[in-house]
Write a structure and sequence with these properties.
Layout: H1 2-19, H2 26-36, H3 41-63, H4 72-110, H5 113-119, H6 124-162, H7 167-177, H8 180-206, H9 211-241
């Protein structure tokens, strides 16, 4: 475990150093932004929509016992912006992009393409890890904003259109109880989650061994480890921000 932590820390520090040292791989960076962010948009929106709908449905029947149906909108908005938005987004991107990052770099490792980059005087960390790390750091907060909006929309559709909550009361409680600090908290978490999932995917791929079987093992380990670290770091950040 100590070896794993040391390798991850060394890879992260080297990738951060290459972010501020030329040559900058802008083409690689924009390619990874498109891969991590744009291509994950559909699955993130779909997941957020149903998450908001389920949340509104469950909170409505719970709050109805206390005649507090007016708080459904605020509950959905707070839950999405502070917790569910960034966490669900990060888990979906981990399953879609994090696994692909580990598989791609792992395949390059076992087919000696990473060694070929070194032979061509191209630093593999600068070329493969740094663009993905920066893309995850920037795109996860943007995806989280979309996820929050879609989740609140899903809660609105169920709460107002299906369950009959007054739309003015629904929206007014959101305006009254949701603050910018709640939104910022979710965005801070999303940025950290973006770094975690891309770093773990790159690390598992970078140190892959054992041919095709090793690539499959690295991909599975990347998804599992990223998901666990995302949930654990979510608790730690929530406790620190309370």
């Amino acid at each position: 475990m100590v070896t794993e932590i040391g390798r991850i820390a060394a890879l992260f520090s080297e990738a951060c150093v290459w972010l501020v040292r030329p040559p900058w791989r802008m083409r690689q960076f924009f390619k990874q932004m498109e891969f991590v962010g744009v291509r994950s948009l559909f699955v993130v929106c779909l997941t957020a929509l149903f998450t908001g709908m389920v949340l509104a449905l469950q909170t409505y029947y719970a709050f109805r016992l206390f005649s507090a149906e007016s708080l459904v909108g605020a509950t959905v908005a707070l839950s999405m912006t502070r917790e569910l938005g960034p966490v669900i987004t990060a888990l979906m991107v981990t399953g879609r992009a994090g696994s692909a990052i580990a598989a791609e770099i792992g395949t390059m490792r076992v087919t000696e393409q990473v060694d070929a980059l070194t032979v061509m005087a191209i630093n593999p960390v600068q070329y493969l890890v740094s663009p993905r790390l920066l893309a995850g750091f920037l795109m996860l907060p943007l995806l989280t904003v979309v996820s929050d909006l879609v989740g609140i929309l899903g809660g609105y559709l169920i709460g107002v259109k299906a369950l009959g909550i007054n739309s003015g009361i629904f929206m007014n409680k959101i305006y009254e109880l949701l603050t910018l600090d709640d939104i910022y908290e979710g965005l801070y978490k999303a940025a950290v989650f973006g770094v975690i999932l891309t770093l773990v995917g790159c690390y598992k791929g970078f140190y892959t061994y054992g041919g095709a079987e090793g690539v499959g093992r690295a991909t599975t380990e990347a998804v599992v480890l990223s998901s666990v670290l995302i949930l654990a770091s979510d608790y730690v950040m929530t406790a620190l921000m309370m």
